[in-house]
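Changelog-linked ticket: adenosine-5'-triphosphate example.
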Amino acid sequence: MTPVQPVRGTQSLLGEEADRLAAVVAAFDRVRRLYGFKRVEMPTIEHTAVFARTIGETTDVVSKEMYSFEDRGGESITLRPEFTAGICRAYVSEGWQQFAPLKVATHGSAFRYERPQKGRFREFHQLDAEIIGAGEPQADVELLALADQLLKELGIDGAILQLNTLGDPETRAAWRDALYEHFRGHRDALSEDSQARLERNPLRILDSKAHQDWPVVDSAPVIDEFLTSEAAHFFGRVTEGLDAAAIQWERAPRLVRGLDYYRHTAFEFVTDRLGAQGTVIAGGRYDGLIEALGGPHTPAVGWAAGVERLSMMIGAPAAEKPSVIVIPLGPRAELQGQAIVAGLRREGVAADMAYRGNMKKRLSRANDAGAAYALIIGDDELERAEAQLKDLGTGEQRAVSLDLLAEAIGQ
Ligand code: ATP
Ligand code: MG
């Protein structure tokens, strides 16, 4: 029988790689508390309509990447491809509106049917932060500061904040028309995908990953020519706020978000260290989303970060090491060893037992595990309620009383 294989684009991680993901999540959890973002726990599945209505039928995510299925009750269900839509659904369905403005954070798996490659998986993990019910540019600044501080805490200094505005609906409509005219004039030079986007969503051509499109994208009109004075003022407040908070940013006039619901601020933190998958955090203001779900008009801003991508950019987390490895010799010593290991662990000392193989093997296991000490228990020592404590750093060995073990290992 062929052994069972993992689903393509999923990862099973052991040791350092798993620790890296956990380190990213732990840093996020520390920082979001400093900023007063409440933790929310979200379902992995939602009605398909939650994503179809908000992310937009014309986006890659909805048209090609969703894991959707009919459940046994005949309902169309989708594994979340991101968190924002589900959080907004909850904002409406769970009455979270009473807490507005609401700052929330969460993290977990997201699922997209994509071509797996470095930094791109079918099940991946996101960190997510949202401020819902705040239309002020101060919310955008706070949210960007959170992302900036997270990167700093993780020791990632090679990610640059690229910032753009998509303006208000009036601005966006005028820009969209100009882009449509521009791209229509260069239709034949565009990739097949972008030709298809032309009628449905010309803004998305700016986001194209096809090299063929880039010259036409580079010569496309920029949004600045179309900004209403309100939209320009809003963007100005955001950039002033960033400067005041000493957050570095770069203007990226052709940056758009792939999803349809964005207004005003759009941004990505980008690095050149991950090849084509260089976007580590992405987000923006999505004032139109909650209305699309049938809720009241609610301004909101948020971002999502790819945990795997961030984890590739951090230094290796400190390996977890036991302080003591207990090495019992014989059945009586094994029982005593169980008592000792349990006692040490209850006192908060990381301890383990090596019960297989000869002494040399067990000592080398203790060394490999990075333990500070090996505690060797033999019958003779047991009579005296003692054991041999070997300092694996210096190689020194001495008899210690079992009652004074914690003191002997300096805990
Ligand atoms: P990309 O352009 O790389 O496809 P995206 O625009 O689809 O990204 P978002 O929907 O903005 O991505 O998701 C936010 C973040 O989640 C991304 O910036 C990235 O770090 C991460 N991400 C998105 N898709 C994947 C994936 N398939 N595998 C790993 N990480 C991902
Ligand atoms: Mg994508």
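Closing comment: Example verified and attached. The mean pLDDT is 93. Residues 16-168+228-311 form a domain with the BirA Bifunctional Protein; domain 2 fold (CATH 3.30.930.10).
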